[in-house]
Amino acid sequence: MGFMRSILPRRNKSKPPPPMPTLAAETSTKQLERVFNKFDSNGDGRISSSELAAIFRCLGHPATDEELEIMMGEADFNGDGYISLEEFLELNTKTVDAKAALEDLRHAFSVFDIDRNGSISVDELEKVLRSIGEEETLAQCKKMIDGVDQDGDGLISFEEFKDMMMAPSFAVASTDKVG
Q1: Which of 47, 121, 112, 37 is nearest to 77 (CA)?
Q2: 17 and which of 3, 51, 90, 100 could share a cystine (Cβ 3.0–4.6 Å)?
Q3: Per the record, which residues fall in region Disordered (predicted)?
Q4: Between helices 85-92 and 23-39, what is the axis angle to 10°?
Q5: How confident is the model at residue 158 (pLDDT cuts 50, 70, 90)?
Q6: How many CB atoms lie within 10 A of CB 12?
């Protein structure tokens, strides 16, 4: 369930989302639209509970019916039973407290750390990306790892992952492929 917060963090329903005037925010919005489109597998412009369940199964973290109900309840602001692009963007552009953000990063890291050894290898990155329909080669995955690997061991530790995800330039740099 915690991993879901990294994708669909909790939001205070009484406050509107903050405006997104910066270039980084606009780029982040495009990145979020790309993620939304991955979730919206049938292309109808909304994410259903079954589409959400399929993503979690692909990532190796199947969600229970109860978890899906909770996640949908947190994200479906208008109560129509689906998550629209607008709801998805609103949910993912709000401020999250530091403790929750760290927990979310740990859960996101665990999705990539398939063998649970505390680091992400080129093979693990490639497997996870393929499981969500990305067609990165091992060479491309190695290049991604090399761009984050601070100690030169060829792996991404949690600290390196956290540094990458928290870097202000991450949103701009990670969307170079988005068209």
Answers
A1: 47
A2: 90
A3: 1-24
A4: 130
A5: very high
A6: 8
Instruction: Please tell me the distance from the alpha carbon of residue 176 to that of residue 103, in angstroms, as a whole number.
Output: 27
Which residue is listed with tokens 């406050």?
Answer: 15
Q: What one-letter code names the amino acid at 81?
A: G
- What mean pLDDT comes out for the span 75-96? 87
Supply the DSSP symbol for 81: S
Structure-token pair, residue 102: 């760290």
**Interatomic CA distance for residues 173 and 45, integer angstroms:** 26
Tokens describing residue 132:
């969500």
pLDDT score for 4: 46
Six token digits for residue 14: 């009484």
CA dihedral over 127, 132, 134, 135, signed as positive or negative: positive
User: Degrees (nearest 5) of the Cα angle 87, 90, 95?
Assistant: 145
What domains can you pick out in the chain, each with its CATH number?
Answer: 2-10+20-92 (1.10.238.10), 98-173 (1.10.238.10)
Task: Work out the angle between the directed axes of helices 158-166 and 138-148 (0-180°, nearest 10).
Answer: 80
Q: Is 113 exposed, middle or buried (0-12, 13-18, 19+ CB in 10 A)?
A: buried
CB atoms within 10 A of CB 18: 11
